[in-house]
Design a protein that fits this description.
Layout lengths: L1 E6 L9 E6 L8 H11 L7 E5 L5 H8 L4 E5 L3 H14 L5 E4 L3 H7 L9 E4 L8 H17 L5 E7 L14 E5 L2 E7 L15
Parallel strand pairs: 3-4, 3-6, 4-5, 6-7
Antiparallel strand pairs: 1-2, 7-9, 8-9
């Protein structure tokens, strides 16, 4: 294990740093990947709620708030990580817009009830073991559960590893896949249903 610093890249908290202990179970999203994430989300970030599931250090959710997100929910089951995220939100003066939820991401997804009609951004960056073997099915179920609940115009983002079976994700062609070294970002926008075509009036 080793200590390192992760820095918020842009926005009102630009340059603020989090000191984190990196180990096998914790992988802070690299700065290059975070920059790409928020560049691609662009105008979908300001004034929307942001959900950082498997938040770890919380840097992605804090970055969202820095860039104007209406709020950030940081979902993390590890008690120490959750406490550290709360301390960072307090220290940065954004505790009014950041809610740390110490719970398992899978259980949270089952209980989550979003506000109807309010688009959200949901970011999933699970631990490595969740992306392989039997856990992979649970992860796909999690993504599907969230997708079904998300209001129209919401964005679901997965951060996975090189070698992740992209073709096995439900509706694989619906995802925009971007690769950054060993990291892969997958984006999917929930488009509103197409309007029913209007029937031509019959002459009287």
């Amino acid at each position: 294990m080793q200590k390192t610093e992760v820095r918020i890249v842009a926005g009102s908290l630009r340059g603020r740093k989090l000191t984190v202990v990196v180990h096998e179970g914790l992988r802070p999203t690299p700065q290059m990947v975070r920059e790409a994430l928020f560049s691609i989300l662009g105008n979908a970030v300001p004034d929307r709620p942001f959900y950082d599931v498997f938040a770890g250090t919380g840097v992605v959710g804090l970055e969202a708030v820095s860039r104007g997100a209406a709020s950030a929910r940081l979902i993390e089951r590890d008690a120490k990580l959750a406490a550290d995220m709360q301390k960072a939100a307090d220290r940065f003066g954004v505790a009014d817009r950041v809610q740390v939820l110490r719970t398992d991401g899978y259980r949270w997804a089952e209980r989550w009830v979003p506000t109807p009609g309010q688009p959200v951004n949901v970011f999933l960056s699970p631990p490595f073991p969740d992306l392989t073997g039997a856990k992979l099915t649970d992860f796909f179920t999690l993504a599907g559960t969230l997708w079904a609940k998300m209001p129209d115009e919401s964005v679901l983002v997965l951060q996975v590893e090189d070698g992740f079976p992209v073709a096995e994700v439900p509706d694989p062609t619906a995802w925009d896949v971007r690769k950054y070294g060993r990291n892969v970002l997958m984006f999917r926008v929930k488009e509103p249903p197409a309007a029913e075509p209007q029937s031509e009036p019959h002459p009287g």
